[in-house]
Amino acid sequence: MTLFNFEAANLPEYEENPFIAKLPPILSMQEWAAGLRGDVTFDPRGRAYPAKLRKHCVMRLLRYFEPMERQVRLAERLDMMIRQGYMGRNPAAPGYAARLAGGVRSAIENIDSSSVIPFFHPTALSFALTGCSGVGKTRAEEQVLLRYPQIIVHPELHMVQLVWLKLESPQKGGPKQLCIDFFTAVDQLLGTKYFKLYGKGGEDEMVVHMAEVATLHGIGLLVIDEIQHMIAGSVTKQQEYRNALKSLSSEARISLVVAGVEDAYNAIGIDPQWASRFENIELPRWEMG
User: Fold this and answer.
1) pTM for this one?
2) Pairing state of beta strands 159-162 and 151-154?
3) Which residues fall within 8 angstroms of residue 148, CB to CB, at 6 or more apart?
4) CA neighbor of 129 nearest in space, from 120, 137, 119
5) Where are the alpha helices (DSSP H) in 37-173?
6) Which of 260, 71, 250, 286 is nearest to 276 (CA)?
7) Closest CA to 110 of 207, 220, 253, 218
8) Whole-number Å distance between alpha carbons of 192 and 184
9) pLDDT tens-digit profile of 47-100?
């Protein structure tokens, strides 16, 4: 039985945007709860299996997932972030290609973008998902993201859309390593050669090219996990991380989620401007229980 009700699956403004129209239909809380659940197959006859097989049967529990209210609410928020983030990036809209080319050129040449591209209202959203280690943040993110196709081909637009991308904050190497990880991840998914093209430049230049790649492939959501790694270095290194993510979010208009332990929340709160970027969608810190 399908979980989706294809009647009135989208809003009119969503249907007009190819990036959104090919996404799975919007789900209710009940449908999300059913869709996120990871059941375990049980057969009473397994009790008669020899011990060497029963041990493997126990490992089925690793695939079990019972969503609670906070996981369902996380799913709803991520869904809204992806769709709303695309509202300001409609590849079928007149002038989209010119805005793409002009925006990248203005960033690279450090010129006033208003002289190159018309203004359009950014619609990307962002928030921080924080809580103590072991409460299931990463598992919940993955369960939600797997409900979406990661790659969508648009033959009519000659474009390959990358709906979401998940990275982990590097323990070493700082923001430059995050850029390298970004290009590498995109190359592995799409068979491109962006790391070869852009992976050897300076940090600021690489961030610009990250925004370019994200725009070319319509990346809808960027999730950066384990952000506590970014606060392990000096205050200067922390600021470099913040600046890099701000630039990526503002240049490419990508909806952004950062996730990590409680200390990471405190680090974000050091900078009011950084913290404010994660207040678009309210989501409480995750605690045990």
Assistant:
1) 0.81
2) antiparallel
3) 23, 24, 82, 163, 164
4) 137
5) 51-58, 69-87, 96-109, 137-145
6) 250
7) 207
8) 9
9) 999 999 999 999 988 888 888 888 999 999 999 999 988 988 888 877 676 666
